[in-house]
Amino acid sequence: MKKKLLLTISLIFLIMILILINYHEKILGKYNQLKNLKVRNDSLALKLENKEKELSELTEYVKNNITENLNFNFIDEDFKNLGNHKIKIETYSNPLIKYIGKRASLEYSENNLFIITGHGEIFFKKNFEISAKKINFKKIKTNLSDFVDKNYIAWAETPFKDILIKNSKIYVSLTNWKSKSIPFNPTKDNCFFSEIYVSKYSEEKLDFKKFFTMNECMPIFTNSAGTIMEKYIEDKILLTIGDYGACGKLAKNYAQDDNHLAGKIISIDEKDKSYKIISKGHRNQQGIFYDPINNIIISTEHGPKGGDEININYLNDNIGGIKDYGWGSVSYGEHYPTNEKYAKKISLACPLNKSHKKNNFIEPIKYFVPSIAITQIILENNFIINNNNYYTAYFTSLGYTAKDGRRSFHKITLSKNKDGKFELIDHDYATIGDRIRDMIYIDKFKSFILFMELDGTIAKVSLLN
């Protein structure tokens, strides 16, 4: 009996030893995996640090070598069909511009062409014309660096969004940053917000002052911030403010909250700086144009996964209320995939029903599934002449490929119905092959000027027939 008990105890003890040995081997294996992972991560971190140092040094080199001038040289011309018309596309490039903020915006005023880079560098071409296959810009000195943390600029790459000239003033918009933690650290408790600075017009030095600041703090940095400006009635300007990814990243439907500026288009008084919400229910409005003849605001916005939109606000219909375009509650796109638990939380906050009209929101005049990454839009009949019953709008697109209308120059034909509302008649586009960030129209040349950000390229688009 004692022998059996002793044998049983010995067997149990042996099994426990074997289990402990096996467990120890697993723990040791995990330890070695973590150790190797740490070594790889340390190596990767060192490589990343070296790359960041190289990029910082290169950026400083570029800044030091683009101190007075920003020159674009002719590289190519191409011909494309735009519906029944043929267009010529002349491209001029400066590959260094991507190191001072590859995103850039254009403005045209009194025959002068202005450009602001993603880092807030401002250049202009006086009496703009293209001669000897070159476009030579002169730099304007500014004090913008006093208002934006340089470490934040280096990290965000393109915080500056737009430039606007009106009433002998120059306005600059950006997504700015503040925090109790200084210097900038993307992992700390941060606050991101849309902001505008203004200066008296000058071609030598611009002394900017704060004009408008979005009071709400958005805890995450995102490019879904809008922050695009446009001239408006009397002494007012328009500003788009995106939802800062609130639906997909915060599970918050701020675009439908009248007490929150995310997901809105607002007008701001140039004199007293007061603002008014014009419309809500927007996600990321990258294009906006005010047409005083028809008294409409036509805007474009990026959807989530699909669902880019072109929207029209008929201002004569306003009866003191805020127009609602539905984002956060409706969209023809879908939320980007995430884990099941968080996906349910997002869907509760932002359900994305499929019909705007059936859910009492304003339908877009056109939407895109899949998305084209739509950007600037202009209503312009002088480029391709139509009769009095038709109107033409032109818009551009970004995209990570050149398929299905991405990286393209678009035209839509509109007509007015008996109620005075626009209806879509036709849509054509010409694939350009580059990410088109901004566009202006110069009536003097009957041409569009495009800024394309892959290689820092300016393009002139002209109608041939």
Q: Which structural category do the helix and sheet elements fall into?
A: alpha+beta
CATH level 3 topology of the largest domain: Neuraminidase
Shape: globular
Extract low-pLDDT stretches.
none
Structure summary, number of beta strands: 27
User: Which CATH first-tier class of the largest domain would you pick?
Assistant: Mainly Beta
The proportion of residues in beta strands is 35-45%
Highlighted features:
465 residues; alpha+beta; Neuraminidase; 4 helices; 27 strands; globular
What is shown here, in short?
With 465 residues, the chain is of the alpha+beta class. It is built from 4 helices and 27 strands. It folds into 2 domains: 1-65; 71-463, Neuraminidase (6 Propeller).
Q: What would your notes on this structure say?
A:
By secondary structure, the protein is α+β, with helices and mostly antiparallel strands. It folds into 2 domains: about 1-65; about 70-465, TolB, C-terminal domain (Neuraminidase), CATH 2.120.10.30. The protein is about 20% helix and about 40% strand. The chain is built from 4 helices and 27 strands. The chain has helices at about 1-65, 150-155, 245-250, 340-350, and strands spanning about 70-80, 85-95, 105-110, 110-115, 120-125, 135-140, 160-165, 170-180, 190-200, 205, 210-215, 225-230, 235-240, 265-270, 275-280, 285-290, 295-300, 310-315, 325, 365-370, 375-380, 390-395, 410-415, 420-430, 435-440, 445-450, 455-465. The strands form 5 sheets. Strands 1, 2, 3, 4, 5, 6, 10, 25, 26 and 27 form a 10-stranded mixed β-sheet that branches. Strands 12-13-14-15-19 form a 5-stranded mixed β-sheet, with no helix packed on it. A hairpin with a 2-residue loop joins strand 1 (about 70-80) and strand 2 (about 85-95). The longest helix is centred in the first third of the chain and has 64 residues, at about 1-65. It is globular, with a radius of gyration of 27 Å. About 40% of the residues are buried. The mean pLDDT is about 90.
